[in-house]
Amino acid sequence: MATPIGNLGDLTERARLTLAACDVVAAEDTRVARSLLAHLGIGARVIAVHEHNERAAAEAVLALLREGKSVALTSDAGTPAVSDPGALLVDRVRAEGFAVVPVPGPSALTAALSASGVAADGVVFAGFLPARGAERKRRLAELAAGPWAIALFESPHRIEATLADLHAALGDRDVVVCRELTKRFETIARVPLALAVDWLRADGNRSRGEFVLVVEGRPVEAAPRADPRRVLEALLAELSVKQAAALAARITGANRSEMYAMALATKEEGGAGKAKGGRKR
Fold this sequence. Notes:
- The chain has 11 helices and 8 strands.
- It is α/β, with parallel strands linked by helices.
- It folds into 3 domains: 8-95, Tetrapyrrole methylase, N-terminal domain (Cobalt-precorrin-4 Transmethylase, domain 1, 3-Layer(aba) Sandwich); 108-215, Methyltransferase, Cobalt-precorrin-4 Transmethylase, Domain 2 (2-Layer Sandwich), CATH 3.30.950.10; 228-278.
- The chain has a 5-stranded mixed beta sheet with strand order 4-5-8-6-7.
- Helix 2 links the parallel strand 1 and strand 2 (45-48).
- The mean pLDDT is 91.
């Protein structure tokens, strides 16, 4: 289930009722989960399910489910399995025939996308980029090759390097830097990637906290416009003046009346050329 990414007021009523009704809370960090449960006045048992123990923890959760217990899965903030542990556990639970019921709610990813102002036909969620080396370069090259907008998470100690690497890989696009979403010092700023590192360095506070970056998609290269006269000449060889003008206008985007006038002139020029050619001996 989704838990607040900063503002406790974002917890849904359904999530609160679910936590109150469950027997066990499987949490990425038991301390964070216990703090949330204490705030809600809920005394459920808490067990740890994190990236280092998820496989073993999955078996413990399955044992609880076989006993008829209800288990809620939470990450530190946001939604489990979205760049957080949980996918392996969910897969094991479903494979054993138990129901997995999503309890949606707060998400740094959707919050950033909704506030970014980046319009796109699609968005690639890249999670956290590899820290360094060939794998990082490969991932950046793959992202650069696609036409879609890109959303990714980043931590404060790597944000400057990531902005620099994004500019090197993606070129002149805008990035929306979303920092500390829903928290007191929330910041959302749209800047060109070429200036993003300078923008970050201009204020020491801008490199603090947790980040979601949304980069606009690759600009679509306009196809070269067809030459109206050449299109018209080709069509006139097969169609009437009226038909050729109408179709040429549709193909090239030119004005239909101008195409008609050009078609008449082209026909007249062609007829005059034939007449002159006919008088030659």
